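Supplementary Text 2. Reproducibility record for the structural model of the 194-residue chain.

All settings were left at their defaults, and a single model was retained for analysis rather than an ensemble. We include the record here because the model underlies the residue-level annotations in Supplementary Table 4.
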Amino acid sequence: MKFHDIELSNGNNTSPNIPKQVLLLALTLILLTIIPLCLNKDSQSPLPSPKINTNASKSIEFEKKCDIFSGNWVPFSEGPYYTNATCDLIIDQQNCMKFGRPNTEFLNWRWKPDECELTLFDAAQFLELVRGKSIAFVGDSMGRNQMQSLLCLLVSVVYPEDISHKYTSDINFKRWFYADYNFTLATLWSPFLV
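Retained model, structure tokens:
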């Protein structure tokens, strides 16, 4: 690549329009940040909303939220949401039971945060919430595992159609469609994306 210098009247060499290029880059980044915010002005914020306390002090209190990261694994007598017998979407390399894992005790646990109770996953409610939308998992095997788990959780309500072949022959990009809910679930396995 060849760079061209401009000689100024005082004899110094410099690149043309560097301040303009920096300004254009900054304005572009600002616009790319603001436009999605304007388009999504009707959506709810993920931040906790303040609860106005109407007592004499007129202070604003934030609702106490559940810290889901501190807690313990506790026995779950209702068993797992799914197994290899109830979900044939588990791929062979992750199907321990199919290849003879003798114990199943590890399936009967759930996460219990210290200060609150997590509600159990409701697949029908989830599908109603995502009606007409799409979700994509992009990343390494961790994202792929989460997507496959979601597929198996949703099988209890409706079985998806694998529509991957309509879009690509790339085995790292998969799509499933839930016609009753007009919902698409996709995964792009990209182990080098950080």
